[in-house]
Amino acid sequence: MSRRQVSSTRRLVDSGSFPFSGALHSKSRSSPVLSVALVLLGAFLLFVYAFSGSGVFGGARETVTKVEGDFSCTSEVHGALPILKKAYGDSMHRVLHVGPDTCSVVSALLKEEETEAWGVEPYDIEDADARCSSLVHKGLVRVADIKFPLPYRAKSFSLVIVSDALDYLSPKYMNKTLPDLARVAADGVVIFAGYPGKQRAKISELSKFGRPAKMRSSSWWVRYFVQTNLEENETGIKKFEQAAAKKSYQPSCQVFHLKPLT
Ligand SMILES: *[C@@H]1O[C@H](CO)[C@@H](O)[C@H](O)[C@H]1NC(C)=O
Ligand SMILES: *[C@@H]1O[C@H](CO)[C@@H](O)[C@H](O)[C@H]1NC(C)=O
């Protein structure tokens, strides 16, 4: 008897009717509650789908990623380039960028007229795309551990821009690296650093960076500059703020302007 039932269901499926309809039919006969539940589940899934599409859930997801640290100060540098150009003018002609994903910054700078750009990538370049490999090949981007002195002569660059990289250095290494960045700059160093409690590296990136990032407060940085005899460039600060206000630009990172070593 039961064998016959199974074969009749199979025949329904074989004869081309939608497989689920066969299943639903046989089940709805035995349990109407189940079919109601299935309809409700379908309605719920449609509801979730509609809302995630309309951005109600999508928006929330975006905020979460940001808090989790999908956000970097290197991406902030891209947004700040027009402001830096306004503030530094001629000093934007020979630029060195130091930080993760430096290929993206160097490419953006090279698109500007009369701008030469170089980059130092402090960590291994993973999955380098063709553009990045070509920059490395041309010697414009190099991978170098910034705990050691940079292989450039004093005042090789008009402006040095550093993003994210310093957040990963302990004070011991920062004591060597930051003055070295000021050494290779002729007109100044611009530092993009994370705000405490805001940016965090993804767990997957921790091994790459060696140690978790330590986001320091702006008062920590200012005290640090004084201790290490690095002077902030008041003109640079003022011009940057004026240009930022004009374009209603609000950086999501702390931005500091240092004078070069004299
Ligand atoms: C870094 O340099 C400052 C100022 O020269 C000094 O006070 C501090 O002890 C140094 N820190 C380390 C860890 O070497
Ligand atoms: C300070 O910053 C300005 C850009 O606003 C730059 O032109 C100038 O060279 C810098 N001065 C010093 C002493 O670093």
List keywords for this structure.
six-stranded mixed β-sheet, binds 2-acetamido-2-deoxy-beta-D-glucopyranose, 2 domains, Rossmann fold, 262 residues, alpha/beta
Can you characterise this structure?
There is one protein chain. The chain has 262 residues and is α/β, with parallel strands linked by helices. The protein folds into 2 domains: 2-54, no CATH class; 71-258, Rossmann fold (3-Layer(aba) Sandwich), CATH 3.40.50.150. Helix content is 52%, strand content 13%. It is built from 11 helices and 6 strands. It has helices at 2-14, 19-30, 32-54, 56-68, 73-88, 102-110, 130-137, 171-183, 203-209, 218-227, 234-246, and strands spanning 94-98, 116-121, 141-143, 157-163, 185-193, 254-258. A 6-stranded mixed beta sheet has the order 3-2-1-4-5-6. Strand 2, helix 7 and strand 3 (141-143) form a beta-alpha-beta unit. The longest helix has 23 residues, at 32-54. The radius of gyration is 28 Å and the shape is globular. Mean pLDDT is 79; it is low at 1-28 and 51-70. The chain binds 2-acetamido-2-deoxy-beta-D-glucopyranose (2 copies).
Strand order of the largest sheet: 3-2-1-4-5-6
Contiguous runs where pLDDT drops below 50 for at least 5 residues: 1-28, 51-70
Main sheet specs: 6 strands, mixed
Q: Can you tell me the number of structural domains?
A: 2
The SSE string, one letter per element, is: HHHHHEHEHEEHEHHHE
How confident is the prediction overall: mean pLDDT? 79
CATH superfamily of the largest domain: Vaccinia Virus protein VP39
Architecture of the largest domain in CATH? Answer: 3-Layer(aba) Sandwich
Shape: globular
Given helix and strand content, the structural type is alpha/beta
First-residue to last-residue Cα separation: 98 Å
Ligands in the model, by name, code or SMILES, are: 2-acetamido-2-deoxy-beta-D-glucopyranose
- Tell me the CATH topology of the largest domain: Rossmann fold
**Helix share, percent:** 40-55%
Radius of gyration: 28 Å
Q: Tally of extended strands?
A: 6
Number of helices: 11
